[in-house]
Known about the structure:
By secondary structure, the protein is of the alpha/beta class. The chain is 36% helix and 22% strand. It folds into two domains: 3-257, Alpha-Beta Complex (Spore Coat Polysaccharide Biosynthesis Protein SpsA, Chain A); 258-291, no CATH class.
Amino acid sequence: MKKVVIPVAGLGTRFLPATKAIPKEMITLVDKPLIQYVVAEAIRAGFTDIILVTHSSKGAIENHFDHNYELNKTLVEKNKLALLDIIDNILPGDANIISVRQPIALGLGHAVLCAAPIIGDDDFAVMLPDVILNEESCDLAKMVQAFQLNRKSQIMVEPVPQEETYKYGIVDIQGRELAPAESTEMVNMVEKPSVDKAPSNLSVTGRYILDNDILGILRTTPKGAGGEIQLTDAIDTLMKAQGAEAYRLEGKSYDCGDKLGYLQATYEFACQHPELGPSFTEWLATIAQET
Length: 291
């Protein structure tokens, strides 16, 4: 499995005014844009064909992964070779960035369909760029392994407080226990259920490993919530036809499409940064003493 779809056509309204002129995926988390973390995660899991479903306003994303001759030349002339090495390794030589346009915002399912000509007959992954996993996470690779065992599509989930289940898509695993890094059969997905009707506290987390049959299902899936083609609706059909599994996240996720989640990620990634971490945590200690 080599192909992954990353939908980046959204306008990032939750982050206005920052996203008025800058793609939300290019907002920086410490010293790298959000999209770079997601692409790096895909590459760690063995994916080499990174399919960006994009929009006319998102050229900065493609430029970030492209070669910049003038910048490279300047860094060489100024003997800033460490910086040159950093930008030259944003994308490994065996990885490809492939862009397709989503001309109309018709939902996540529609975004996946826009990538269908490139996906072809292959099984594939979908990664939502708002969700950032910790950099040590091997969860996506483990989802691929789980899929290869029984060819059942894998949906990443993680526990949330029961009183907050109304905010998320929640999966039904019929009361079974699900340990981190393990998969189990799902029987249903419920979008934002009331707290008293939530079938579990396991929320969908923004990573999917999908059987290619989902493309045929999406082509006949009617518009759902918001007048959009919902990937969740197609997964529900796929689940009933051939089964699908919930995979429980072993690492940690951050909702960087939300301002508070982004700030939390900034704090934790800054503390863990190999160069900035010690100085940053030292500074935090002085702030704590002052308060």
